Every structure is written in structure tokens, then in C-alpha cells.
Amino acid sequence: MKNKSFVIIIISIILGIIVGPIVGTESSLFGITYYSLFELLGKLFLNSLMLIVVPLVVSSIITGISSMGENQGFKGVGLKTFGMFLLTNFLAIVAGMLLVNIFLTPFTEAASNIGKIKNITHVLQATDATSSIKTIILKIIPPNIFEALSTSQMLGLIFFSLLFGYVLTKVEGEPGAVLKHFWKAVYECMIKITHLIMKLLPIGVFCLVAKEFAETGFSSLKSLGFFWIVMMGSLAVHALITLPLLLKFVAKVNPFFHFKAMGSAMITAFCTSSSSATLPVTIDCLQKKAGVSSKIASLVAPLGASINLSASAMYVFIISTFLASAYGMPLSFNTQFTIFLLSLLTTLGIACVPSGCLITIILVLKAIGLPAEAVGLVVAVDRFVDMFRTMTNVFGTSSCAVIVAKLEKEKNLFSNYNTP
User: Fold this and answer.
1) How many Å apart are CA 211 and CA 21, to the nearest integer?
2) pTM of model > 0.90
3) Mind giving me the DSSP string for 222-251?
4) Beta bridge partners of 28
5) Sequence-separated contacts (24+) of 407-413 with Cβ below 8 Å
């Protein structure tokens, strides 16, 4: 059953919420507190996610960019596709940023409440990362790529991966083929490892949720509820306003037709919470219902499942700013700009599996100086948001495919719907 894993994870979250407050921080078995056991197992789960971050992101970006170049180069369809991916990701994060700042006072108060409940001390080691835009920009091009690898400086690694993937499209003959196969193999291995780790997701989620609720009880639910409202409002803005406007004024098609055409793909995305699992349905809907050619659909949809997760980019921004505020970091322009840039770039390498966003969130938290454990504060609501996030991701990628097809002057778009 497609929904089996979803049901198991929801049960794990509910059990964590129930068990945590019951056992508290003092209850023990054979002298070992349940709280310390939850903390240990939760930490091991987070460590397993951190273990694959760098190779997954690097191989994903290099493989995606080189694959795009292999199909169409960085001209024509390839360039338009990548441009639309960046645009939709950018606009998604802007939507999230707008809602965060519109509701900045209650947003920061909700985050601060969690910080107080958890008795979190201010984590100000992030100051040097957000002290100036100049510092941020300098981190994009590291002087030593091996140092960037060893210290997980993700802005530098992402820039290098983009550059490497682009140059790889220019390497001809056997050397180029060997390198492409190598990075493709690394990426496939990382995805398989990710799937293995995600099999432990119910246990990891239960331990993280139980640990947090053992420490805080039910006090944090109200604050998490406000975070959830801001997130869902941002998704609604992106899916119901931003993307339809692009379809209307760039592709010059009726957005309602596209919603109707992609219905089965969006339902599949909602049920599976996986862009990659939805991919066959996405391609089928694009070709048979939206009228996008096989050439465009077979390029844009697979790439989009890997590097065009606009709703995930928005989610990473909102959750990172929420946690930064919980840890006492003021949401200044520099802080938000840093998180904005990291969210835009790191989502190029999100694993397109259920809850794959957790990996990227941990990456961003580490980059701004927060502990990976901070993600435990909001993991209880992640799975509930994941369904809507994946559905919006699929709709965003399919919208990009339609726009690229229009820019390529394809004539059969929504011909069954009598588009004006």
C-alpha cells in the first residue's frame, strides 16, 4: 500500500506525543532513563542523515546539471528549464519570506515560546556567518575545496558542484563518460542509502518527538500550530497565486486547465510524499492531458523531481528562520538573507523521498551555527506538511514544463480543453 509508510509515521508521531509526557525526563528502566534512550536513538538517526548530506548534495547537483547539458546543453531547452527552476524556487522562498515578515511578531513569539519551554540558551556562534553580506558572498567561492568538504561549507560546495557539472558537459569522449557514470553511480548509491535510512524514519521520528514532549509536555503544540499555519499559508500563496500567474502571463494558458490536467499526479504526490515516486504519473499527465511533447516532458519532469522542489525550498526557509528565532537569533536582514541563499541553493540537492527535507534542514541549521538537534523541535509537524509540500512541488515542476513548452512554441498545449 502506498499509504502504509505514511500511516506508520503518523502513528509514530502520535505515540511520541503520548509517550513523551507520560515517561517525562526522570522515569527509568534498570537505571537508564527513557529520556536518555530517546535522546541517544534520536541523535543516531540525525547523525545518519548528516552522514550522507555532502555526497548526496554534491552528486545530485553534478548529475542533474551534467544530465541537462547532455540532453540539450546549456542552450535552448536546457537553459530555459534551469532558468524556470531557479525562478520558481526563488519566488517560492519570497512568498515564504513575505508571510514570515507579515506575521513577524507572532512568528518570533511562537518560536521564542518554544525556546523558553526548552530553556534554550542563545546560540550566537552563527554571528560570524550572518555578520555581513560580504562574508556570505565570500563563502560562495571557497579558496580550498577540500577544506570546504571537511567543514561542510555548503555554499562553496554547491557552487563548485554547479561549476563542475557545467564543465563536465564540455568534456568529450571517454573521460567525460567515465566521470558522468561515476557521479551517477555515487548519486544512485546515496539515494539507496537514503532509502535505507528512511526505513528507520518511524523509529527516529518517535524518539525525537518523544524526547521533545518528555521535556516540554504539550506546551509547544500551540507554537507549532502557528508555524504550521504560516507554512500552509505560504504553500497556498505559491500554488494558488504565484504559479497560476506564471501560467497565465508567461505560458498564456488557463491555470484551471493545468490544475485539472495534473489532478492524478498531485493526488499521487499527496499520498506518496515523493516526487520521484510520482514521476511516471507526472510525465503521463504532462503528455496526455497537458499536451506537452515527450521531448520536453522527459527532460523537465525527471530533472524537476531532483532540483526543482520549490515548496521544499520555501519550507527550508520558514523552518530555519523559526528555529533560528527559537535559539535567540534576531531575524535581521543578514540572517534572513543567509537562510534565503542557503535555502535556494541547498534545495538543488534534496533527496526526493518522503521527509527528505530533513536532510537539507539539518544542513542549513549547521551552516548558520545551530545544532542539528534543533530539527527535533518541529519534526512532529514535518510529515503533515510533507504531503502538501510534495503536491506543490509536483505542480510547480509541471508548470515549468508547460512554460518551457510554450517558450519552445509547442502548439498542442491543452488542446483538449479548448485553450483560447
Assistant:
1) 9
2) no
3) HHHHHHHHHHHHHHHHIIIIIHHHHIIIII
4) 33
5) 407/80, 407/250, 408/76, 408/77, 408/80, 408/296, 410/291, 410/292, 410/293, 410/296, 412/291, 412/293, 413/251, 413/253, 413/290, 413/291, 413/292
pLDDT tens track for 73-94: 445 777 788 889 999 999 999 9
DSSP string, 116-140: HHTTPPP-GGGHHHHS-HHHHHHHH
CB 348 within 8 A of CB 64: yes
CB 227 within 8 A of CB 110: yes
- H/E stretch holding 200 reads none
Using CA atoms, how far apart are residues 156 and 38, in angstroms rounded to an integer? 35
C-alpha cell of residue 146? 577540500
Residue 130 has pLDDT above 60, yes or no: no
H or E stretch including 33? strand 32-33
The sign one gets for the Cα dihedral 154, 155, 158, 159 is: negative
- Give the type of residue at 125: Q
Is residue 399 scored above 90 in pLDDT?
Answer: yes
Can you state the angle between helices 34-72 and 201-216, rounded to 10 degrees? Answer: 130
Look at residues 366, 325, 376 and name the one whose alpha carbon lies nearest to residue 125: 366
Q: CA 270, 271, 274: angle at the middle one, nearest 5?
A: 75
Summary mean pLDDT of the chain: 80
Above 80 in pLDDT, residue 346?
A: no
Instruction: Give the whole-angstrom CA distance, residue 318 versus residue 130.
Output: 17
Span between the terminal Cα atoms of the chain, in Å: 41
Tally of domains within the chain: 1
Range 337-342, long-range pairs (CB < 8 A, 24+ positions): 337/130, 337/133, 337/136, 338/129, 338/130, 338/136, 338/367, 338/368, 339/364, 339/368, 340/93, 340/97, 341/136, 341/155, 342/154, 342/155, 342/316, 342/367, 342/368
- State which of 1-15, 61-75, 388-402 shows the largest mean pLDDT: 388-402
Looking up cell 506508520 gives 8
Amino acid, res. 407: L
Contact 383, 10 (CB under 8 A): yes
Rounded to 5°, the CA angle 201-267-318 comes to 55
CATH number at residue 120: 1.10.3860
Show the CA angle centred on residue 108, arms to residues 320 and 350, nearest 5°: 15
